[in-house]
Amino acid sequence: MTQPALFRRVPGRRPRLLDLFSCAGGAATGYHRAGFDVDGCDVADRPNYPFPYHRGDALTYLAALIASGEIRRYAFVHASPPCQHGCALTVGTNTSRGWGRTHVDLVAPTRALLDETGLPYVIEQPNGRAKIRKDLTLCGEMFGLGVIRHRNFELGGWTIEQPAHVPHRGRVRGWRHGEYFDGPYVAAYGNGGGKPTVPELQTAMGITWTDVREELTEAIPPAYTEHIGTAALAQLAPALGVAA
Description:
9 strands, alpha/beta, Rossmann fold, 7 helices, two-stranded antiparallel sheet
């Protein structure tokens, strides 16, 4: 992707990043630590989101920014469209109950609008996604976290080296098919079945600003996007007029 004129930035300023489908700000916090200023957008009320935030439909908001030219405020876009459609956790474990494949798939329309911006971007999804290009896969063990939480990232307009996958140190703690297993990781999804407490989730994920379980279980560990954001800035710094 050729970097357009909208990449010209004032030297020394932090570039702005648009965080779509932002949830409570796990991804946003990592990007902020890497050197971006962040604005979020989510359809739900997110009072715990730690940065400027617009409540509304993410794709409608992005289309409006493109149409008005306001997208030029941004240097980079991150999007985490809802993952229930086709997600391994939803389809793999719940098809016998009639769950899975009933959610709207937003990956394709998200990608189409992101390509229209002309900006470099990231689309994030969990394992089990067939419709995302897996340019990067990250795991909590790569960052010494208390969760495994594999996440895949499609990169638009830029590249990043895939780090080696670090072998897991054991099992995820909790009940599986009537048997309890101990291990160094907590299960950052759902309730019951030996799931962790909220403080345990906060510690394992590296997230302290929200104590809402649903937000924690949907979040991306900030360590992931700090890694991504640092690499993105290193590549984009000359065009952005900022220090790498």
